[in-house]
Amino acid sequence: MRALSLVLLCSILSAQPPSASLTIKASAPGPKVHRQIFGQFAEHLGFGIYGGIWVGEDSKIPNTRGYRNDVLNALRNLKVPVVRWPGGCFADEYNWREGVGPRSKRPVKINTHWGGVTEPNSFGTHEFMEFAELLGSEAYVSGNVGNGAPREMAEWVEYITSPAGSLADERKANGRVTPWKLPYFGLGNELWGCGGNMRPEYAADVTRRYSTFIKPPAGVTVMKMASGPSDADYNWTEVFMRDASKHFDGIGLHYYTLPGHWAKKGPAYGFDENAWAGTLSKTLKLDEYLTRHAAIMDKYDPAKRIWLGVDEWGSWYDPEPGTNRGFLQQQNTLRDALIAAMNINLFVKHATRVKMANIAQMVNVLQAMIFTKEEKIVLTPTYHVFEMFQPYMDSTSLGIQLTTPWYNKDQHTIPAISASAVRDGAGKMYAGLANADPNRSIAIEIRLEGAVPAKVSGRILTAGTMDARNTFEQPNALIPTTFDGAQILNGVVKAMLPPKSVVMLNIE
Ligand code: AHR
Known about the structure:
single chain, alpha/beta, Immunoglobulin-like, TIM Barrel, ten-stranded mixed sheet, eight-stranded parallel beta barrel, globular, binds alpha-L-arabinofuranose
């Protein structure tokens, strides 16, 4: 009899969902969460610009002066804080002069890096700066240190920002009288790779040289963003910070999440649980990268003047079958939603140093926000996560203490819950949560240190399958819905997080 009740108790206990607990230090505000961590990246790559953002004024696709209306509206809804352009590797070979003046006279070039297709140059400096203005976004222009000269780069900045002089006159003749704001200018891209295959010592010297000639007009601030490391290349950061940090205001880190390796990355959908777990485990490596790059930066810049900008991040899978391999088109699933939420939580965790991030990329490329096909548009799960996290923009981070069960699959073990918490300008608190376990719900108890919760509500993004996705045929298969799995009991917020879900809680 006793043995039987023990068996019963064990089976009842094993049927209980695993539990997690989160303490939010509501009375101990942390660093600001810069809205720029929700930045995006738009490169001349595949259908990223042409067809994705720009269709030209004569297109039958509804547009405003050449920009797709549907894409503009969707992006406006996200309040995109900053857009990086024109690359990427494309920027390393870009001659800005070929993209200004009457469109019919602009040279048609070959996009040697991405698919060898023709580049009409119809989307150039004016089109990009106007695009950023239409979105209400800041512009982050990446200069060409790869095969361009310092003079070219200096003149580009003068063309964009100067109120007077021949370059300003040329800009005015091309239709723009007042100078544009240029909050960020990139001193090259991936100088260790497509930007020139440089060694860090040489690249640091080149950065010093190019930076010297970026001279915005009096009273105008342009933050100079250096081309930083990839992944765990700590030596790059060390050398740049040691030898060149007086000459830049930010440094970019690039980290892509690949389920496999560069030669065989793995499919964007139709994957198994091992690939789910492996991919999420890879994305979490960013935590260590940010910790160690930031520690090196602290050594040379204890006042934290210099921004760490994760100016390329996101998932990278095998290309969608049947597409041009150089166009980097891939589907976007619930797994990408988890990747997005987990990365944002890491940016918040490292908010003292990470002040910008630019997901790769905005439309139709890699971990895109939006897909377009002719006149059709699809918002991806990643788009929806960005939309859910909007209250985080320019909020104050709150310290957290998280106790979470592990999620194991084969050789992969990761914390099942990823979390962050903030307080917005109006005093409302938000907790961004992700349950990476695709099989088990997790019961989480949230305690506020220094505050008493009165009301909780939330939104959730989840689905029945790991690779649930939106398609042109079913664009709303995966969209956020109201989350009614949270309540307050005795001053504690109790929520049941379904398997493979992203939840945004609003606690008042
Ligand atoms: O985002 C695609 C490419 O990835 C970028 O052009 C390059 O900077 C990086 O290697």
